[in-house]
Amino acid sequence: MSSADGFLPNLEVRVIAFSLQGERLHVLLVPEGGQRAFPGSRVECERSLDEAASGQLYCLTGLREAYLEQLYTYGDPERSPGGRLISVVYFALVPAAQEGAAAQAAPMNKDAAGAEWFPVESLPGLVSDHAAMLAYALRRLRYKLEYSAVGFQLLPEVFTLTELQRTYEMILGEKLDKRNFRRRILQAGIIEPTPRLRSGEGRPARLYRYRADAVAEVKARRLFP
Amino acid sequence: MSSADGFLPNLEVRVIAFSLQGERLHVLLVPEGGQRAFPGSRVECERSLDEAASGQLYCLTGLREAYLEQLYTYGDPERSPGGRLISVVYFALVPAAQEGAAAQAAPMNKDAAGAEWFPVESLPGLVSDHAAMLAYALRRLRYKLEYSAVGFQLLPEVFTLTELQRTYEMILGEKLDKRNFRRRILQAGIIEPTPRLRSGEGRPARLYRYRADAVAEVKARRLFP
DNA sequence: ATAATAGTGTCTCTCAGACATTATTTA
DNA sequence: TAAATAATGTCTGAGAGACACTATTAT
Known about the structure:
CATH class of the largest domain in chain A: Alpha Beta
CATH superfamily of the largest domain in chain A: Nucleoside Triphosphate Pyrophosphohydrolase
Number of strands of chain A: 10
Radius of gyration of chain A: 19 Å
Number of helices of chain A: 4
Structural class of chain A: alpha+beta
Shape of chain A: elongated
Distance between the termini of chain A: 48 Å
Strand content of chain A: 25-35%
CATH architecture of the largest domain in chain A: Alpha-Beta Complex
Helix content of chain A: 10-25%
Oligomer: homodimer
Largest sheet of chain A: 7 strands, mixed
CATH topology of the largest domain in chain A: Nucleoside Triphosphate Pyrophosphohydrolase
Number of domains of chain A: 2
Largest interface: A-B, 26 and 26 residues
Order of helices and strands of chain A: EEEEHEEEHEHHEE
């Protein structure tokens, strides 16, 4: 049934990888036919779809443990001019590089395949139906952020509450009240303080981390309705 | 790239169709290899995945306009013993037959392919990973019911508030308070009263219908948290 | 000392949840 | 008139949202 070349015919996975760079949400794109596209690959016969997607992510970012979730499968006959193609699309959250850590396995800015991060508000031309994919992925990301704790996946292991709030604001596209944000995020019980502080321009800020033992019990209740 | 027989190789769609029968939630199953499976078919080269799924649903229930949504794509190499197979799984909500209407295009109980409705609490043995698919579909159905208005898709065009409440209770698996249910469902503004009443054993009940003009603006806020 | 950022508490109002009685019909 | 189901309002407690000042550091 499968092709002789060891790949499944007519099938690929694509990965929409989000990351925070500076003060903006970025996505990872590779060149394709003069435009840009989400990185992807065909699927080897003996690999699962999840493996194909996380392999793709690893080879572009060097990360093994990023948040990865299947988004949607696109399969309209007209969507790819060069013959019928089914795309199983994933979306991934790539943590920002750890502050002050040397030689971090952080998202690279260039790659063998020419992958680059682009801010989501100013994207180059995208191939085929990839713009629609991105719109859907963004909607889902915002949505997930509201009722689950997925925002931490974009931050390094430790972070300040202000950084966390900026992350939420960046993705939701709105300002949040500092005191209300802190009250709710702490009440949710998904982060805990560490003994460390981070010094900056003003008063040093306490560093928090995601509570590993709370990962399982993702809150069903919305955090930010 | 595509097979010579006009179908995409290694790819199928499956449909998990839910319906209310009597006082229970049912799913539609067909015989397959001595067990039962969700109805499905391979995908013709020139058809979209959505079309393949809705065609499948039409051929089994006679319905053209049922609620249909892509659920997940399963593609692990080990899941199908007879060679690698990718299953794009949809879930569908089939409305109950209209009360008192003759020759209704309602869900048939038997079909050319031997399709039958089974209550979700007492299912026969399911093929391959179909039990896991069902568990996920049920979770998603319950979840959608809580924050959107999808419950109406399982009812005929007009219904009483008690029938609607029973639907919610059946799917969520818990009793709901009558007054609170009515308050919230009416405040949500997604149904409207009709002039008609339905007579039964006791006091006749007002019939309601889904507000067509409110279909688009699905409430983002949860109805039943 | 000044600039910069971190950190904290209260009040109000809305909404979810619990709860019991009256109204209208058929048998 | 009895049995069955429909329809309706109030109170209470929890949580969301608005809001301003003090604390601690670097320059």
